[in-house]
Protein: Myo-inositol 2-dehydrogenase
Organism: Limimaricola cinnabarinus LL-001
Amino acid sequence: MREIGIGIIGGGYMGKAHAVAMSAVGTVFDTALRPRLEMVAASSPESAERYCAAYGFARGTGDWRALVEDPRVEAVVIAAPQETHREIADAAFARGKPVMCEKPLGASVEDARAMVAAAEASGVANMVGFNYIRTPASQFARQLIAEGAIGEVTWFRGEHTEDFLADPETPFNWRCEGAANGTLGDLAPHMVNAALALLGPIASLSVNMETVHRNRPGGRVDNDDQAQLMCRFARGTMGQMHFSRIATGRKMGYAYEITGTKGAIRFDQEDQNAIHLYRAEGPEAARGFTRILTGPAHPDYLPFCQGPGHGTGYQDQIIIEARDFLRAIETGETVWPSFRDGLEVARVIETARASAHEGRWLDVETE
Amino acid sequence: MREIGIGIIGGGYMGKAHAVAMSAVGTVFDTALRPRLEMVAASSPESAERYCAAYGFARGTGDWRALVEDPRVEAVVIAAPQETHREIADAAFARGKPVMCEKPLGASVEDARAMVAAAEASGVANMVGFNYIRTPASQFARQLIAEGAIGEVTWFRGEHTEDFLADPETPFNWRCEGAANGTLGDLAPHMVNAALALLGPIASLSVNMETVHRNRPGGRVDNDDQAQLMCRFARGTMGQMHFSRIATGRKMGYAYEITGTKGAIRFDQEDQNAIHLYRAEGPEAARGFTRILTGPAHPDYLPFCQGPGHGTGYQDQIIIEARDFLRAIETGETVWPSFRDGLEVARVIETARASAHEGRWLDVETE
Amino acid sequence: MREIGIGIIGGGYMGKAHAVAMSAVGTVFDTALRPRLEMVAASSPESAERYCAAYGFARGTGDWRALVEDPRVEAVVIAAPQETHREIADAAFARGKPVMCEKPLGASVEDARAMVAAAEASGVANMVGFNYIRTPASQFARQLIAEGAIGEVTWFRGEHTEDFLADPETPFNWRCEGAANGTLGDLAPHMVNAALALLGPIASLSVNMETVHRNRPGGRVDNDDQAQLMCRFARGTMGQMHFSRIATGRKMGYAYEITGTKGAIRFDQEDQNAIHLYRAEGPEAARGFTRILTGPAHPDYLPFCQGPGHGTGYQDQIIIEARDFLRAIETGETVWPSFRDGLEVARVIETARASAHEGRWLDVETE
Amino acid sequence: MREIGIGIIGGGYMGKAHAVAMSAVGTVFDTALRPRLEMVAASSPESAERYCAAYGFARGTGDWRALVEDPRVEAVVIAAPQETHREIADAAFARGKPVMCEKPLGASVEDARAMVAAAEASGVANMVGFNYIRTPASQFARQLIAEGAIGEVTWFRGEHTEDFLADPETPFNWRCEGAANGTLGDLAPHMVNAALALLGPIASLSVNMETVHRNRPGGRVDNDDQAQLMCRFARGTMGQMHFSRIATGRKMGYAYEITGTKGAIRFDQEDQNAIHLYRAEGPEAARGFTRILTGPAHPDYLPFCQGPGHGTGYQDQIIIEARDFLRAIETGETVWPSFRDGLEVARVIETARASAHEGRWLDVETE
Ligand SMILES: NC(=O)C1=CN([C@@H]2O[C@H](COP(=O)(O)OP(=O)(O)OC[C@H]3O[C@@H](n4cnc5c(N)ncnc54)[C@H](O)[C@@H]3O)[C@@H](O)[C@H]2O)C=CC1
Ligand SMILES: NC(=O)C1=CN([C@@H]2O[C@H](COP(=O)(O)OP(=O)(O)OC[C@H]3O[C@@H](n4cnc5c(N)ncnc54)[C@H](O)[C@@H]3O)[C@@H](O)[C@H]2O)C=CC1
Ligand SMILES: NC(=O)C1=CN([C@@H]2O[C@H](COP(=O)(O)OP(=O)(O)OC[C@H]3O[C@@H](n4cnc5c(N)ncnc54)[C@H](O)[C@@H]3O)[C@@H](O)[C@H]2O)C=CC1
Ligand SMILES: NC(=O)C1=CN([C@@H]2O[C@H](COP(=O)(O)OP(=O)(O)OC[C@H]3O[C@@H](n4cnc5c(N)ncnc54)[C@H](O)[C@@H]3O)[C@@H](O)[C@H]2O)C=CC1
């Protein structure tokens, strides 16, 4: 057990989540490295000071470079907007500091490509914050598919839908401009990552995308409100996805259904402690989808609670990420999902956007 | 109250369903016309005899022409395979007899077009058997959308998925050959009809279709196991659909979700007596999807039962159809869905098939 | 196949349900006896005339004795209020006519006892209308328990809850007076019958009962709004029940959960086409409640539909009853639930009422 | 922001949960007092050392007295078995140290009474660990009832059911002996506390209790496997409860349904991020139970996540408790649930046990 100084850039939604995770992860997982909240950076000294006090960091700064360069900061978490990811990561890697970067990996596929190069050149730990796939339920889904529990996979449907911009009267905000902040740029990466993790590479796709609410109080929206796609996985499976920020009624619509020749899986993040499994075996009269509550028998659940069905939550996903990031730093081994995995996602998103513009099927190029 | 002699062609799955419906409809709905099970036709005199006895018809015949021509048969129900629909309908209309035809309307868009022409030339009642949209729940969904209860519609997702051919070891049968008997030809019409009924015409679509299990014991499959589509409705709404007969675990996966600016609707035929409605109104803390159990307050429920939540079933949908068919005969008014509505569906299916072959977006032509 | 003349007394909620069932049952089940709607009796000639026309009976009468005595009426269905059951049944049995009587069996345990005596003396078919236990799902639950699929049964919880009198402003009506029309008298019999069918006799019980809304517009309520009980089954299992007509939000709250050493069953009539089964076997990680949709693999489903998950409804339960009643008449065999089964229920209800008044545990006497 | 040294007695299931909570609470809630994991006590020096290292405490001890007396330990958390609660609490209060004690409050009502006296004599913060009622959903339920959202409450049903001893072959362990470790002693307190929090005092009750599996490999069970009760709340409401550790299939069956004249609430901890609310208002056709996903609009949710529906878990409940305990220490104000609240629960449990033995209704005495 050794302490490690953590610097977090950003103290908003995700900056706080990572600060909590770093506070708790050692106790939850008995990690070899024990985080110390060393420094937080924000867009101004004042907000940095506020986050510093609220979350219990030793110091705050209005300049992320100061954080990256600080000798007591031994690992960097990037929880600032996508436009900042690349420059920060470059600076951290240049100093040989491990980086955990929030999704998406940069604001474009070029960013992602450059970030992978920098990460791999530095040789230090690098990881992307795809947290939803970390639930015990979704980890279990991966296991089931890998083990062949549902046979040969014949269908995938995924969605990431929320309704935070469903009301056309919701005022214009930063999420309303820039491709990286639209639905494809901001929400889709989570589900695309899930699709890749569950079924492997996507070979080709055809996308339809649109801005439903073009005008909002305060500004004109220039990015997408929703998108859908049809795709073909490299393994041959047919797939379908939908991404939306105007899905009225959906709060955390990260959901998938996966069908195989011998069974099927259904999952919805709005009931994240359950996974539904169908198996085409045994007498017909007893078949159906089984609602399995996660518990100690499922991946990464036990350290949170000894009782099955007692449940984990959003914050726990980030704690699981922190455990892996620390392990990567400690062991020097690559951890999933690395920047390279983030780049795979970025390439799918890029191709999706191109397909939407051209209105036709496109292959997803391999690097 | 006047008796009417009914002739049903086919005594299998749907032939029986219509025979039951004709037996019960008068008592359920106090119809002006009261059906008399006059005659049943099947592919052989023997099976006709069996159906005749089992269902309680006055007579049976191995020759559908005998049925159509019989003076005591005053209205014809076609519950034989799609390939037979056109010829039978033509013959019935030629004799001025009303026709209720099972879905799809013929085996091709040409069939459908010819059948509409014959129906309209004859001027007698004509109707297509899209029964699922008849549940009190789906009728209520139509009402809600028409009234604007969920605002401007921004998204539609529909599926018709079952698993009767999910097992690759299930032997080859007649559903495994001929486009009209594949997933797009056989299952899709129900959901396409629903989409049209709920949201209006589809302007364009892009389809992906495949045969997952090409070889089965007993033969080589030449039609589609599953298909998916992206579409744009004429009203501007983005849509997505999926059709499958290999959806392991799905028994009656006729399901849709419809999102609007002020609310959303979710329905799944596997829980046909409930509909889920979200309304973006009232305090945030009290919002969510409301599971509404159908009851006397919903369309066509009361005649089946005075108690809410007591439920209707598959057979009741056919009884509701029978009520409308009798009403059309009695009043001479067009009833929904008429052959023309069946043709609209056929055109979408035809365009879908073309899109799948060409691998690109196509417009759905209007006649 | 032989016709049989049916006389139904009562043309309200249940009278109509039985009329529909008698119209459809022959076609659905290919019964040896085929009902003919011969006569309907109501409280006045006018209403009888209305029912006669609406449901398609040959004749109507304001005097139930005329019906019972009519030679063309070969079997009698009692669908009039509980106070009338005994007298009508007596008259029918005296003429050797089979009787299907709506639940409860008479207005008191004395009625029930006398009715059993009359039925058994006559030797003709007799049956009580406990319809809910007839769903394919509940029949399957019976099978599962009988086969030991959930091991030794350790717990039973049942409820029959609805909300038709939940609003204290709902005006006084006939259900508001007379023990036989209160919650214990009117609703409880269904669930008590289910409990007996599923687990066998109840040995003892302790009951709590109350009238929540004593005054209603139009009158003072003299019977119970809700009741609950703890019980011990003769097989040793602990049980719990709840009955309510003021259960706001519950429309058809006929629900039970049954726990055993090797599994558990959950059922709710508000989702009548599904049953939830847990089995304590296989790997821990894959256990959970399986939502089984009823289909052709379950009792009495196939005659209604060939497709699983397509669903049956309230009316279909009555059709299943009709099939059994006809079979009993045809074969002369006792059919479940006979009047004797209705008496078992009546004795439990009677003991429950006594326990509620005395505020203590009472044994349920065996005859 | 000031540091406070925390000593935790017990490092098992709950000892760890509190250690995690104390690590995270400051960052989550920006508390005025910031916990420092000062010392952990266990039943042996070795296990204490293990916990110390794993969870990140400064020191460990095999003697809880050393912990209580340590000057750097400023507040004590008791997470050892019920038999130890009283002695430890007494010692801590004697030194003027605040105590957070896991449920139940001691091993008997005498313990609880003595502990309240000691706590009140000391005048320092005291709190009992009823965590399940802390979810945003259950806190919201309390609010709804208090505000009259469901009108006058007419019915309460609660259960706390799990299946950790459902298999009769599960070997004998400490939970199998001693009233305090049986189902009534161990599980019931959570739901009784919920009942009191939601509806207020229980006036009287009648209980039925049993040991289903008397013999287990390794020993003879002397306490209860399951119990049920009927009760009357002081406000007049009728209630029903069930507690079980042999409820096959139930993992976290902490569930309740509360009915009122204007609405109803349903909650099940196995889906802890949702609460179901029915309101008897608006058009009949749109009524039903609304599944509300918890989010920033609900109590104590926002500090965990800005997104609604993203979910909290078991561990987060303990973090909320820690926040309140720290607040109580800081402000000197009584916090809910205090030892006095724990005593209320203990009195109900005691009366329940007496009722079970006497087999009759008993009043719950007020102190
Ligand atoms: N994994 C997940 O579930 C989620 C991930 N995200 C991702 O996390 C990242 C941050 O998003 P949110 O936390 O939602 O944003 P936010 O708006 O809540 O917070 C952004 C933070 O970045 C800081 N910041 C902005 N520019 C900066 C600069 N130049 N130097 C230093 N600090 C700067 C701001 O002061 C603020 O503290 C984004 O990349 C976003 O895509 C966001 C939400 C959920
Ligand atoms: N609305 C719905 O839910 C469903 C509709 N259908 C439709 O109903 C129609 C019939 O399908 P099923 O009942 O499933 O088929 P089936 O195979 O169960 O029965 C077909 C019947 O048609 C009769 N038949 C075949 N050729 C004939 C001929 N030349 N002359 C007279 N009778 C002939 C056969 O004897 C048999 O009785 C099809 O168009 C199908 O698409 C089928 C199933 C469900
Ligand atoms: N199995 C079930 O799900 C249900 C069973 N029931 C039972 O069915 C029976 C009838 O109840 P509902 O149909 O709800 O009542 P209802 O009030 O709807 O109809 C009662 C019918 O009985 C007739 N009637 C009354 N007194 C008569 C008399 N002296 N002679 C001839 N006809 C007379 C009335 O004219 C009316 O047609 C009751 O025993 C009730 O407990 C009622 C509802 C549901
Ligand atoms: N709120 C909740 O959800 C739950 C509460 N509990 C309660 O928490 C308490 C502890 O239960 P668990 O954590 O499940 O037990 P456990 O068996 O997992 O751990 C008990 C701990 O107490 C320690 N201990 C035992 N005797 C001791 C002594 N004399 N001195 C110092 N340490 C001692 C042991 O070393 C062990 O670390 C009990 O009162 C129990 O009722 C337990 C589980 C869940």
About this structure: The interface with chain C takes residues 150-151, 154-155, 157, 163, 166-168, 206, 208, 210, 212, 226, 228-230, 232, 238, 240, 242, 244, 246-250, 259-264, 278, 280, 287-289, 359-361 of chain D (CB under 8 Å). Chain D has ten helices and 17 strands. Chain D has a mean pLDDT of 97.
